[in-house]
Amino acid sequence: MSKTFLLWSSLALAATGVTAQAEETNPVDGEVLVNKLNGVFGRHAAKRASGAKGFCAAGYLEPTAEAGQRFTSPLFQPGQHQASIRFSNGGGNPASDDRARSTRGIGVKMELPDDDTMDWAGSNVPMFVASTPEEFVEYLTVRAKDPVTGKKDKAAIDAYSKANPHTLKTGKYIKARPAPASVASTPYFMIHTFYLEGQDGKSHPVRWVFQPEGGYVGLTAEQEKTMPKDFLEAEFKGRVTSAPARWSIMVQFPKEGDPLNNANIAWPDDRETMKVGTLVANSYVTKGSANDCTGQVYDPLALPDGIEPSDDPMLEARSSSYAVSLTRRSE
Ligand code: HEM
Q1: Is 302 near ligand 1, meaning CB less than 6 Å away?
Q2: Which terminus of the chain has fewer Cβ atoms in its 10 Å neighbourhood, N or C?
């Protein structure tokens, strides 16, 4: 299946202005979502509408032999699949503070055997704030800054939160742990369900989780106050000169009743897991160099053969809004 086609279709539509019409009929298309993100974070020239602050790395994904025996996708064929990686801070503020207890993200774009490709874009939080794109629009609308005062309406946010307590789970999860001491020392969750085609001919629902090989390492209470605001990029650049960053790529399998299309609900930690590979980030990539990822997009629907998306409505919403954000970055 060509999700690249979807992306380029969206780009073509954006270029012809057709999305402006779509906005009237579909309240949650990519244009609307990016406008809503801009309403909260401002619009910053050439920057991503979310994940605005970040830097590039390179490495590879090496699947386990067990994964190839069990699943058909070229992702699991033996070898080291080259990966272009981008680490980011969540949200659209290009000057966000690396010490803050907020979201960290990872984008991975892989070249696979059989001329296939695959993207991942995940974060260090196992559940999303909203369960549908419509709900995410509401969530962002209530947090929009007043265009005159530049302030948020705290009373409206409190009232919305009280009426929608499930939207607070993400914030509680983030605040409960110190900010990661390194982009290499945190897990990343892809949170949506995907289906892996099995060698048994069946389709297996899974969620991806990247577990850092050294476990979670957060800033100490002292470091949360004293580290420089922009320490993450320099820390990674220094770290990979002596040792690569490595994550075990795990898939979680659901139990009967676990939601397959609601990213607001994390599957419990006790679910069966399987290691399907290792992600290795072994070099820092300088801006402007041949492998610079700044102009790339990490589309969660860019999937290889043998991997299908679930019907989680967030996936289409993400894919279309990433395409819009990509177009706007070059305007
Ligand atoms: C409907 C929900 C969501 C919307 C509308 C949304 C929107 C966006 C947009 C517009 C971008 C900028 C894309 C670009 O310019 O390339 C972005 C980046 C990103 N998003 Fe989302 N997002 C959503 C959900 C999520 C979720 C659930 C995750 C994590 C599991 C996530 C992780 C990321 C990451 C890591 C980036 C930065 C990727 C990069 O480095 O290029 N997003 N998002």
Answers
A1: no
A2: C
